[in-house]
Amino acid sequence: MSGALLETRGVSKHFPARRGVFGERQTLRAVDGVDLCLEEGETLGLAGESGCGKSTIGKLLMNLIPPTAGSVDFRGRRLDTLGGKELFSFRRQVQMIFQDPYASLNPRMRIGDIIGEPLKIHRLAAPGEYRDRVLELMRRVGLDEGYFHRYPHEFSGGQRQRIGIARALAVQPKVIIADEPVSALDISIQAQIINLLQDLRHEYGLSMVFIAHDLSVVRHLSSSIAIMYLGRIVERGGRDAVFDRFLHPYTEALISAVPRLSPGTKARRIILSGDLPSPLAPPSGCPFHPRCIHAGELCSREVPPLEEKEPGHWAACHFSGKIYR
Fold it and tell me: What angle do CA 258, 259, 265 make, to 5 degrees?
Protein backbone atom coordinates (compact mmCIF):
# COMPACT_ATOMS: atom_id res chain seq x y z
CA MET A 1 0.00 0.00 0.00
CA SER A 2 3.01 2.30 -0.06
CA GLY A 3 2.04 3.93 -3.37
CA ALA A 4 -1.49 4.75 -2.23
CA LEU A 5 -3.21 7.94 -3.30
CA LEU A 6 -5.90 7.69 -0.62
CA GLU A 7 -5.63 5.18 2.20
CA THR A 8 -7.26 4.23 5.49
CA ARG A 9 -5.29 2.51 8.25
CA GLY A 10 -7.42 0.72 10.83
CA VAL A 11 -10.00 3.47 10.62
CA SER A 12 -13.07 3.31 12.86
CA LYS A 13 -16.03 5.58 13.37
CA HIS A 14 -18.25 5.13 16.41
CA PHE A 15 -21.27 7.24 17.25
CA PRO A 16 -22.84 7.65 20.70
CA ALA A 17 -26.42 6.40 20.86
CA ARG A 18 -29.14 5.87 23.44
CA ARG A 19 -32.12 3.52 23.69
CA GLY A 20 -35.04 5.91 24.11
CA VAL A 21 -34.90 9.28 25.82
CA PHE A 22 -33.73 7.95 29.19
CA GLY A 23 -32.19 4.67 28.06
CA GLU A 24 -28.63 3.55 28.59
CA ARG A 25 -25.87 4.98 26.48
CA GLN A 26 -24.54 2.76 23.72
CA THR A 27 -21.98 2.90 20.95
CA LEU A 28 -22.92 2.50 17.30
CA ARG A 29 -19.95 0.99 15.46
CA ALA A 30 -20.55 2.32 11.95
CA VAL A 31 -17.00 1.56 10.77
CA ASP A 32 -14.76 -0.79 12.72
CA GLY A 33 -11.07 -1.12 11.82
CA VAL A 34 -11.07 -0.73 8.03
CA ASP A 35 -7.99 -0.80 5.80
CA LEU A 36 -8.52 0.47 2.25
CA CYS A 37 -6.21 1.67 -0.48
CA LEU A 38 -6.95 3.67 -3.63
CA GLU A 39 -4.16 3.72 -6.19
CA GLU A 40 -3.59 6.34 -8.89
CA GLY A 41 -6.04 5.79 -11.77
CA GLU A 42 -7.94 3.04 -9.94
CA THR A 43 -11.68 2.74 -9.38
CA LEU A 44 -12.38 1.03 -6.07
CA GLY A 45 -15.90 -0.34 -5.70
CA LEU A 46 -17.24 -0.45 -2.14
CA ALA A 47 -20.28 -2.70 -1.84
CA GLY A 48 -22.52 -4.19 0.83
CA GLU A 49 -26.02 -4.08 2.30
CA SER A 50 -27.61 -0.82 3.44
CA GLY A 51 -26.36 0.08 6.90
CA CYS A 52 -22.98 -1.64 6.58
CA GLY A 53 -20.98 1.62 6.83
CA LYS A 54 -20.26 2.42 3.17
CA SER A 55 -21.41 6.05 3.25
CA THR A 56 -19.59 6.63 6.55
CA ILE A 57 -16.38 5.46 4.85
CA GLY A 58 -17.07 8.01 2.09
CA LYS A 59 -17.41 10.82 4.63
CA LEU A 60 -14.21 9.75 6.36
CA LEU A 61 -12.34 9.75 3.04
CA MET A 62 -13.64 13.25 2.36
CA ASN A 63 -12.60 14.43 5.84
CA LEU A 64 -16.20 15.46 6.51
CA ILE A 65 -16.15 13.61 9.83
CA PRO A 66 -13.17 12.71 12.04
CA PRO A 67 -12.32 9.06 12.73
CA THR A 68 -12.74 7.63 16.21
CA ALA A 69 -9.56 5.59 15.72
CA GLY A 70 -7.06 4.94 12.95
CA SER A 71 -6.21 7.40 10.20
CA VAL A 72 -7.05 8.48 6.66
CA ASP A 73 -4.04 9.48 4.52
CA PHE A 74 -3.87 11.41 1.27
CA ARG A 75 -0.56 11.05 -0.59
CA GLY A 76 1.01 9.86 2.66
CA ARG A 77 -0.27 12.73 4.83
CA ARG A 78 -2.81 12.18 7.59
CA LEU A 79 -5.93 14.24 6.96
CA ASP A 80 -6.26 15.19 10.63
CA THR A 81 -2.88 16.96 10.44
CA LEU A 82 -3.80 19.13 7.46
CA GLY A 83 -4.67 22.77 7.97
CA GLY A 84 -4.77 26.06 6.14
CA LYS A 85 -3.48 25.86 2.57
CA GLU A 86 -2.92 22.08 2.71
CA LEU A 87 -6.51 21.42 3.71
CA PHE A 88 -7.73 23.87 1.07
CA SER A 89 -5.67 21.99 -1.53
CA PHE A 90 -7.07 18.64 -0.38
CA ARG A 91 -10.62 19.95 -0.77
CA ARG A 92 -9.85 20.75 -4.38
CA GLN A 93 -8.18 17.41 -5.16
CA VAL A 94 -10.86 15.20 -3.61
CA GLN A 95 -14.48 15.83 -4.56
CA MET A 96 -17.75 14.04 -3.81
CA ILE A 97 -20.84 13.14 -5.80
CA PHE A 98 -23.71 12.71 -3.35
CA GLN A 99 -26.41 10.06 -3.28
CA ASP A 100 -29.46 12.34 -3.27
CA PRO A 101 -29.57 14.63 -6.32
CA TYR A 102 -32.57 16.42 -4.80
CA ALA A 103 -30.96 17.39 -1.49
CA SER A 104 -27.38 18.04 -2.65
CA LEU A 105 -28.15 21.19 -4.70
CA ASN A 106 -29.01 24.57 -3.20
CA PRO A 107 -32.61 25.26 -4.33
CA ARG A 108 -32.02 29.04 -4.23
CA MET A 109 -29.06 29.03 -6.61
CA ARG A 110 -29.17 28.91 -10.38
CA ILE A 111 -27.46 25.99 -12.09
CA GLY A 112 -24.69 28.13 -13.56
CA ASP A 113 -23.86 29.45 -10.10
CA ILE A 114 -23.93 25.98 -8.51
CA ILE A 115 -21.46 24.59 -11.04
CA GLY A 116 -19.34 27.74 -11.06
CA GLU A 117 -19.13 28.27 -7.28
CA PRO A 118 -16.07 25.97 -6.88
CA LEU A 119 -14.30 27.96 -9.61
CA LYS A 120 -14.77 31.12 -7.56
CA ILE A 121 -13.79 29.55 -4.24
CA HIS A 122 -10.56 28.10 -5.65
CA ARG A 123 -9.94 31.05 -7.99
CA LEU A 124 -9.63 28.86 -11.07
CA ALA A 125 -11.24 31.18 -13.61
CA ALA A 126 -10.79 34.85 -14.42
CA PRO A 127 -14.01 36.92 -14.50
CA GLY A 128 -14.02 36.86 -18.29
CA GLU A 129 -13.56 33.08 -18.43
CA TYR A 130 -16.08 32.10 -15.77
CA ARG A 131 -19.19 31.67 -17.93
CA ASP A 132 -17.30 29.82 -20.70
CA ARG A 133 -15.83 27.37 -18.19
CA VAL A 134 -19.25 26.64 -16.71
CA LEU A 135 -20.83 26.16 -20.14
CA GLU A 136 -18.01 23.81 -21.11
CA LEU A 137 -18.67 21.69 -18.01
CA MET A 138 -22.40 21.65 -18.72
CA ARG A 139 -21.82 20.45 -22.28
CA ARG A 140 -19.44 17.74 -21.08
CA VAL A 141 -22.01 16.19 -18.76
CA GLY A 142 -24.84 16.45 -21.29
CA LEU A 143 -26.66 19.59 -20.10
CA ASP A 144 -27.99 22.17 -22.55
CA GLU A 145 -26.42 25.63 -22.36
CA GLY A 146 -29.88 27.12 -22.08
CA TYR A 147 -30.19 25.66 -18.57
CA PHE A 148 -27.59 28.10 -17.18
CA HIS A 149 -30.13 30.36 -15.43
CA ARG A 150 -32.59 27.69 -14.29
CA TYR A 151 -33.11 26.41 -10.73
CA PRO A 152 -32.75 22.80 -9.47
CA HIS A 153 -36.50 22.20 -9.10
CA GLU A 154 -36.85 22.53 -12.89
CA PHE A 155 -34.79 19.39 -13.52
CA SER A 156 -35.27 15.62 -13.30
CA GLY A 157 -33.25 13.44 -10.94
CA GLY A 158 -30.85 12.38 -13.69
CA GLN A 159 -30.28 15.97 -14.78
CA ARG A 160 -29.64 17.03 -11.17
CA GLN A 161 -27.06 14.30 -10.79
CA ARG A 162 -25.34 15.57 -13.95
CA ILE A 163 -25.24 19.00 -12.32
CA GLY A 164 -23.59 17.47 -9.25
CA ILE A 165 -21.04 15.71 -11.45
CA ALA A 166 -20.23 18.94 -13.29
CA ARG A 167 -19.78 20.74 -9.96
CA ALA A 168 -17.36 18.04 -8.78
CA LEU A 169 -15.36 18.24 -12.01
CA ALA A 170 -15.11 22.04 -11.95
CA VAL A 171 -11.96 22.08 -9.78
CA GLN A 172 -10.19 19.36 -11.83
CA PRO A 173 -9.92 16.89 -8.91
CA LYS A 174 -7.65 13.86 -8.67
CA VAL A 175 -10.19 11.73 -6.76
CA ILE A 176 -13.97 11.41 -6.94
CA ILE A 177 -15.91 9.83 -4.07
CA ALA A 178 -19.22 8.71 -5.61
CA ASP A 179 -21.65 7.81 -2.81
CA GLU A 180 -24.44 5.71 -4.37
CA PRO A 181 -24.80 8.24 -7.21
CA VAL A 182 -27.44 6.24 -9.12
CA SER A 183 -29.48 4.57 -6.36
CA ALA A 184 -32.15 7.31 -6.36
CA LEU A 185 -32.58 7.24 -10.17
CA ASP A 186 -34.72 5.22 -12.58
CA ILE A 187 -33.05 2.18 -14.14
CA SER A 188 -32.78 3.74 -17.61
CA ILE A 189 -31.23 6.91 -16.18
CA GLN A 190 -28.83 4.87 -14.04
CA ALA A 191 -27.22 3.44 -17.17
CA GLN A 192 -26.69 6.92 -18.62
CA ILE A 193 -25.02 8.22 -15.45
CA ILE A 194 -22.83 5.12 -15.11
CA ASN A 195 -21.65 5.44 -18.71
CA LEU A 196 -20.98 9.15 -18.17
CA LEU A 197 -18.86 8.42 -15.09
CA GLN A 198 -16.97 5.76 -17.02
CA ASP A 199 -16.20 8.19 -19.85
CA LEU A 200 -15.17 10.99 -17.50
CA ARG A 201 -12.90 8.69 -15.52
CA HIS A 202 -10.92 7.85 -18.66
CA GLU A 203 -11.00 11.37 -20.08
CA TYR A 204 -9.79 13.13 -16.94
CA GLY A 205 -7.61 10.34 -15.55
CA LEU A 206 -9.62 10.22 -12.34
CA SER A 207 -9.22 7.88 -9.41
CA MET A 208 -12.59 6.96 -7.97
CA VAL A 209 -14.22 5.34 -4.96
CA PHE A 210 -17.59 4.09 -6.16
CA ILE A 211 -19.99 3.23 -3.32
CA ALA A 212 -23.04 1.12 -4.18
CA HIS A 213 -25.14 -1.83 -3.03
CA ASP A 214 -25.79 -3.03 -6.61
CA LEU A 215 -22.96 -5.44 -7.45
CA SER A 216 -23.69 -5.44 -11.18
CA VAL A 217 -23.06 -1.67 -11.24
CA VAL A 218 -19.94 -2.06 -9.10
CA ARG A 219 -18.53 -4.70 -11.45
CA HIS A 220 -19.14 -2.53 -14.52
CA LEU A 221 -17.25 0.47 -13.14
CA SER A 222 -14.61 -0.88 -10.76
CA SER A 223 -11.13 -2.28 -11.21
CA SER A 224 -10.99 -3.55 -7.61
CA ILE A 225 -13.72 -4.29 -5.10
CA ALA A 226 -14.10 -4.26 -1.32
CA ILE A 227 -17.10 -5.96 0.30
CA MET A 228 -18.33 -4.53 3.62
CA TYR A 229 -20.40 -6.19 6.29
CA LEU A 230 -21.39 -4.57 9.58
CA GLY A 231 -18.63 -1.96 9.51
CA ARG A 232 -15.83 -4.30 8.41
CA ILE A 233 -14.19 -5.31 5.14
CA VAL A 234 -14.82 -9.04 4.66
CA GLU A 235 -13.28 -9.40 1.20
CA ARG A 236 -11.08 -7.27 -1.03
CA GLY A 237 -9.36 -7.85 -4.34
CA GLY A 238 -9.41 -7.36 -8.09
CA ARG A 239 -12.83 -7.18 -9.73
CA ASP A 240 -12.62 -10.52 -11.55
CA ALA A 241 -11.03 -12.29 -8.58
CA VAL A 242 -13.84 -11.22 -6.24
CA PHE A 243 -16.60 -12.10 -8.70
CA ASP A 244 -15.18 -15.32 -10.13
CA ARG A 245 -13.16 -16.70 -7.19
CA PHE A 246 -14.90 -15.24 -4.12
CA LEU A 247 -13.47 -16.35 -0.77
CA HIS A 248 -16.15 -15.25 1.70
CA PRO A 249 -19.69 -16.67 2.15
CA TYR A 250 -21.20 -13.16 2.30
CA THR A 251 -19.67 -12.24 -1.05
CA GLU A 252 -20.97 -15.51 -2.49
CA ALA A 253 -24.49 -14.68 -1.29
CA LEU A 254 -24.38 -11.18 -2.77
CA ILE A 255 -23.12 -12.41 -6.13
CA SER A 256 -25.76 -15.15 -6.26
CA ALA A 257 -28.41 -12.39 -6.21
CA VAL A 258 -27.03 -10.64 -9.33
CA PRO A 259 -29.37 -11.33 -12.28
CA ARG A 260 -27.93 -13.38 -15.16
CA LEU A 261 -28.73 -12.24 -18.69
CA SER A 262 -27.81 -15.51 -20.42
CA PRO A 263 -30.89 -17.77 -20.50
CA GLY A 264 -28.78 -20.93 -20.20
CA THR A 265 -26.92 -19.73 -17.12
CA LYS A 266 -28.17 -21.17 -13.86
CA ALA A 267 -26.80 -20.23 -10.47
CA ARG A 268 -27.76 -21.34 -7.00
CA ARG A 269 -29.53 -18.49 -5.21
CA ILE A 270 -28.34 -18.15 -1.63
CA ILE A 271 -30.97 -16.73 0.73
CA LEU A 272 -29.43 -15.33 3.90
CA SER A 273 -31.34 -16.11 7.07
CA GLY A 274 -32.22 -13.36 9.52
CA ASP A 275 -31.58 -9.65 9.24
CA LEU A 276 -28.40 -7.60 9.31
CA PRO A 277 -27.44 -7.38 13.03
CA SER A 278 -27.55 -3.99 14.68
CA PRO A 279 -24.22 -2.12 14.83
CA LEU A 280 -25.34 -1.16 18.36
CA ALA A 281 -24.97 -4.80 19.42
CA PRO A 282 -22.79 -6.67 16.92
CA PRO A 283 -22.43 -10.43 17.42
CA SER A 284 -19.32 -11.85 19.01
CA GLY A 285 -16.62 -13.36 16.83
CA CYS A 286 -17.17 -13.12 13.09
CA PRO A 287 -19.92 -10.54 12.50
CA PHE A 288 -21.39 -12.71 9.73
CA HIS A 289 -21.53 -16.01 11.63
CA PRO A 290 -25.24 -15.81 12.72
CA ARG A 291 -26.27 -15.83 9.03
CA CYS A 292 -23.52 -18.07 7.62
CA ILE A 293 -24.32 -21.68 6.64
CA HIS A 294 -20.64 -22.60 7.03
CA ALA A 295 -20.14 -21.15 10.53
CA GLY A 296 -18.44 -23.25 13.16
CA GLU A 297 -17.83 -22.86 16.87
CA LEU A 298 -14.64 -20.90 16.22
CA CYS A 299 -16.61 -18.28 14.26
CA SER A 300 -18.67 -17.33 17.31
CA ARG A 301 -15.54 -16.82 19.43
CA GLU A 302 -12.89 -15.19 17.26
CA VAL A 303 -13.02 -12.35 14.75
CA PRO A 304 -11.29 -13.59 11.58
CA PRO A 305 -8.51 -11.25 10.41
CA LEU A 306 -8.51 -9.89 6.87
CA GLU A 307 -5.77 -12.08 5.37
CA GLU A 308 -4.24 -12.36 1.91
CA LYS A 309 -5.52 -15.79 0.86
CA GLU A 310 -4.25 -15.45 -2.71
CA PRO A 311 -1.89 -12.86 -4.24
CA GLY A 312 -3.80 -9.54 -4.14
CA HIS A 313 -6.94 -11.19 -2.76
CA TRP A 314 -7.92 -10.76 0.92
CA ALA A 315 -10.74 -12.35 2.89
CA ALA A 316 -11.83 -12.42 6.54
CA CYS A 317 -13.03 -16.00 6.96
CA HIS A 318 -11.68 -18.79 9.19
CA PHE A 319 -12.66 -21.52 6.74
CA SER A 320 -12.36 -19.95 3.28
CA GLY A 321 -9.51 -22.31 2.36
CA LYS A 322 -11.73 -25.30 3.17
CA ILE A 323 -14.97 -23.94 1.66
CA TYR A 324 -13.56 -22.66 -1.63
CA ARG A 325 -10.89 -25.21 -2.51
Answer: 110
